[in-house]
Design brief:
- The complex is a heterodimer of chains A (110) and B (120).
- Helix content of chain A is 0%, strand content 45%.
- In chain A, the strands form two sheets. In chain A, strands 1, 3, 4, 7, 8 and 9 form a six-stranded mixed sheet that branches. Chain A has a three-stranded antiparallel sheet with strand order 2-6-5, with no helix packed on it.
- In chain A, a hairpin with a 2-residue loop joins strand 5 and strand 6.
- Chain A is globular and about 40 Å long.
- In chain B, a hairpin with a 4-residue loop joins strand 7 and strand 8.
- The chains are: A mainly beta (110), B mainly beta (120).
- At the A-B interface, strand 3, strand 7 and strand 8 of A face strand 5 and strand 10 of B.
Amino acid sequence: QSVLTQPPSVSAAPGQKVTISCSGSSSNIGNNYVSWFQQLPGTAPKLLIYDNGKRPSGIPDRFSDSKSGTSATLGITGLQTGDEADYYCGTWDSSLSAFVFGTGTKVTVL
Amino acid sequence: QVQLQESGPGLVKPSETLSLTCTVSGYSISSGYYWGWIRQTPGKGLEWIGSMYHSGSSYYNPTLKSRVSISVDTDKNQFSLKLKSVTAADTAVYFCARGNVVAKAYCDYWGPGTLVTVSS
C-alpha cells in the first residue's frame, strides 16, 4: 500500500496535454525532491524528471513537473502514441527512511 | 554509458533465500551513488526494496527489512540482494538500479529486470 496516490488512468487525444497528480504528505513530497518515471510495456522504468525539473539527456521538454505543498504533478504536452505507458512518481519518505513510489498511472492516447 | 544487468535463479522454492547479483559497467560503484533493488509484482506497481551506498550505508523498505540484505563488491563492480524466507508473494520482476535516493530521490540507471518465481 503506497503512501503516494496517483490516478489509475488518464487519457487524451494525440497532440493534447495530460497531467498526472501524485499526492503525498509532509514526510515525503512536502519536504523532499520528487522524481517521475515512465515504464513502457515489458521494459524497465525510465527516469523522466528529477531534482526540481531536471530531465536526463534525451528526454524532451514535452515532459515537465511542478510541486505544491504535498502534491506533485507531471505534465505531458503534445501527446504522442509513443507516450502510452505507465507513469510513477517517487520520493524519499523521511519518516519511513525509505524511497517510495506512487501507485502508478496508465496513460492512454485516444 | 552506465549499464546494469541482473543475474540469478529464475525459480526459488518457498522458505528458501532469493539471491540476485547486479553487474555494473561503465561506472565504478566506488565512485558514489546508492545501488539498490526494486521489484514489481506481475501487473502491479513498483516496490523499492532497499539501497546501499558504496561505503556501506544502507536503507531498506520497512516492510521487508527483517528479510533483506544488500551488499556491494567494489572489486567485481557488483552488488547483490538476498531475500530470506520467500513466499509466493515474493514472485516478481526484480530490477537493480543506481540512484541518489536519499538526497535527491531518484534512480537514473536501471537494469532490464529479471523475473523470479517462488514455487515448489
